[in-house]
Amino acid sequence: MHGHAPRAASCSRERRRGIIQSGLGHWAANATENVTVSHGGALEYLAIVPILALLMIAHELGHFVVARRSGIVVEEFAIGFPPRLFSVVRGGVRYSLNLVPIGAYVRMLGEEDPRAPGSFAGQSKRVRAAVLVAGAAMNLIVAILAFTTAYATGWPQAISANIQIAGVTPGTPADVGGLQAGDVVRQVDGRDILALNEFRVETERHLGRPMELTVDRGGTPTTITVTPRTEWPEGQGPTGISLQLAGVVVAPVPHPPLQSLALGVQQALAVLVLPLGAVVMAIRGDLAVELLRPVGLPGMTQLAAGAASVGIETGWWFPVLTLTGAFSASLALVNLLPLPALDGGRLLFVFIEAIRGQRVPPEREGLIHLVGMAVLLSLMVLVSFNDVVSPLPDINWGTR
């Protein structure tokens, strides 16, 4: 979130924290579906830099704004990590532009020393909690804006598809009527069928009554009459057929502004609950455990390169926008986990203070965060190593 007192220790801690933020944007690769392209050239591999810079700046800006409005003395707001390239002092705050572009940090007065006037540690529990949560809140806002823009400029949707008979069970109404695997359903009783759900609805409407199907069989229109059963064996359905989509055509479909915003909020929240749902599915055996793999900086770089390649080649920036939204929402979630060295870990100590009625000694809390930082850095190295030796599969973003 921010630098720590004493000042001599702030730079190294801020730098380590930025590495953690950039490396723990996991689960994001699982946040987009059905959406293969090459990884792109060297230029595309730099796409991760502005994406992470945006997320880090937004995160630290959240801390900065709430801290300033709460009367906390902010000593420095920096974009990037040292060495420093340029700085200017305005309103008692040093604004710095540093050489290493991935990251940002806020340095506040007395984070662990409540004796200094205007220090972070000297604020009430409510104020400290608000400052800690503000970074994740800003990342959630960025995620919503990214997803909203993606919906407004063109979210991929199947605009046409063929409803095809995948299989016919012998002795069922479909078999008796003459349906064959490979037939493409065009109409039911003269009504065009454009979606699987439409066919299911028509089937339910005709239970016990004949329905006339117009199918395309090898390019030839054929009319077949089938009478769906009112009772059927488990797994067969009323007609005894299995269906599939064939010849799906996907295209970007822009949405109205308010609908885009509503869908953007829904998508961002979906990324937040995705990890819990995925873990539950894995426990139930509905999801392969290997799909839960976290994604480190190399994996994020690979994903961003693929997304940028699509944007450069087609002018369609949905991949970059959705990936940015997924990374940002994931960053919000990860930073609120109750783990030492993260905002959630510091928030946990505020809650402990509220329950106990007294603070954990700053020296003890600092040691816990230091150990937590070492553990998280070690995990990051392992995750990044796995990304290198076992690269992520490309995301099929589709074509414009």
How would you describe this structure to a colleague?
With 400 residues, the protein is α+β, with helices and mostly antiparallel strands. It folds into two domains: 2-155 and 257-389, no CATH class; 170-239, PDZ domain (Pdz3 Domain, Roll). 48% of the residues lie in helices and 21% in strands. It has ten helices and nine strands. It has helices spanning 7-23, 48-69, 125-154, 173-177, 196-205, 257-284, 297-314, 318-335, 343-356, 362-389; strands at residues 2-3, 74-90, 93-108, 155-168, 184-188, 191-192, 211-217, 220-226, 241-253. The strands form two sheets. Strands 4, 5, 6, 7, 8 and 9 form a six-stranded antiparallel beta sheet that branches. Helix 2 (48-69) packs antiparallel against helix 3. The radius of gyration is 27 Å and the shape is elongated. The model is unreliable at 2-40 (pLDDT under 50).
Query: Which blocks of ≥5 consecutive residues have pLDDT under 50?
Result: 2-40
Instruction: Classify the secondary structure makeup into a structural class.
Output: alpha+beta
Mean pLDDT value:
84
Major sheet details? 6 strands, antiparallel
User: How helix-rich are the residues, as a percent range?
Assistant: 40-55%
* Pattern of helices and strands: EHHEEHEHEEHEEEHHHHH
Q: What portion of residues belong to β-strands?
A: 15-25%
Label the overall shape.
Answer: elongated
Count the beta strands. Answer: 9
Number of self-contained structural domains: 2
- From the N-terminal CA to the C-terminal CA, the straight-line distance is 39 Å
- The count of helical stretches stands at 10
Radius of gyration of CA atoms, rounded to a whole number: 27 Å
